[in-house]
Design brief:
317 residues, alpha/beta, Arc Repressor Mutant, subunit A, D-Maltodextrin-Binding Protein, domain 2, 2 domains, eight-stranded mixed beta sheet, two-stranded antiparallel sheet, rod-shaped
Length: 317
């Protein structure tokens, strides 16, 4: 077999040859490739000239492969299959983009997840990976992850909003209200006024309290104008979700971000006995690296998240 002269192998001619060899018919190959039989015949001649040998014996109403063509055909098929697979992998990668979202546990479970189907339905091409980590709260052990360059990372942080070198959007501020089981609104010492808290257990969320990051019971009682309730009594919880579950079970009253317990309020599992709120120094922020900020997946998530949070950001109750 003559050695080719170094020119690139004619890809269209190889496709025409493979189809014609499989069908043993220029006409049937042309129908598959959506061209004319003459075009297939021409491409086969181009390949024969490139190789310097005949690939078909052209018989009356039939084609027959030459020995050289029979030997070459399996590798041609393998090469075309590999090319098709490679192109399909690139096409799928372009069509589907990954996104990792990392948030504080309470935010993920009580605010984000109940809404997340709206994002995935609107953006089916985004392959979402959601993780919840306590390190997304300022004051906890640092847990900041940079983007890998392949999968962008969006972090929702509960903190000060000061994250140098990163793109930062405020999601919504945190205002704390007392919440409890509706059972505590009944009985001998029913919760009717803030002063009635003297008869009930105060549940403390110690997630983060340094520097007024979030109000303590002392802070809230001061806002409510209550002076004769011991703000230090009651069990303490290291996780906000634990304090909320205790409140749902009727164990006592805890302070919670109203935006995060809206679904429990709507279902009747929790109530706000008196709508006196106390602001926190911390808020929720969407944080990304400057590199990741321009990725299509991050932009789609940012737009969706800020639209979902708009009523909270505006202070809607």
């Amino acid at each position: 077999m003559p050695i080719p002269d170094g020119r690139n192998a004619p890809l269209n001619a190889l496709r025409a040859f493979e189809a014609a060899a499989r069908h043993l018919s220029f006409k049937n190959a042309a129908q598959e490739l959506h061209v004319t039989a003459g075009a297939v015949s021409h491409q086969v001649k181009v390949l024969e000239e490139y190789l310097g040998l005949a690939l078909f014996r052209r018989l009356t109403r039939a084609l027959e492969l030459t020995p050289e063509a029979s030997a070459m055909l399996p590798k041609v098929r393998e090469g075309l299959d590999n090319l098709t697979e490679a192109l399909e992998r690139v096409r799928r990668r372009v069509a589907t983009c990954g996104l990792t979202v990392i948030t504080p546990p309470n935010f993920a479970a009580r605010w984000l997840v109940p809404r997340l189907a709206r994002f995935t339905n609107a953006h089916p091409n985004v392959e979402l990976h959601l993780a919840s980590r306590p390190g997304m709260i300022d004051g906890r052990d640092a847990d900041v992850r940079e983007g890998t360059g392949e999968t962008p990372v969006a972090m929702v942080r509960f903190g000060s909003g000061r994250y140098p070198g990163r793109h930062v959007d405020e999601v919504f501020a945190a205002r704390y209200v007392p919440v409890c089981s509706p059972r505590l609104l009944k009985g001998e010492h029913a919760l009717k006024t803030p002063e009635d808290l003297r008869f009930h257990t105060l549940l403390h969320d110690d997630t983060v309290t340094e520097g007024g990051a979030r109000p303590s019971w002392s802070d809230w009682l001061e806002v409510a104008g209550v002076t004769d309730v011991d703000a230090t009594r009651g069990p303490r919880f290291s996780d906000a979700s634990l304090a909320l579950e205790a409140a749902i079970e009727g164990m006592g009253v805890t302070l919670a971000i109203k935006a995060l317990v809206r679904s429990e309020m709507e279902s009747g599992r929790l109530v706000v006995p008196f709508d006196v709120s106390s602001p926190a120094a911390y808020a929720y922020y969407l944080v990304t690296t400057e590199v990741d900020a321009d990725s299509p997946a991050i932009q789609a998530f940012r737009q969706w998240l800020l639209e979902e949070a708009a009523p909270e950001l505006a202070g809607a109750e």
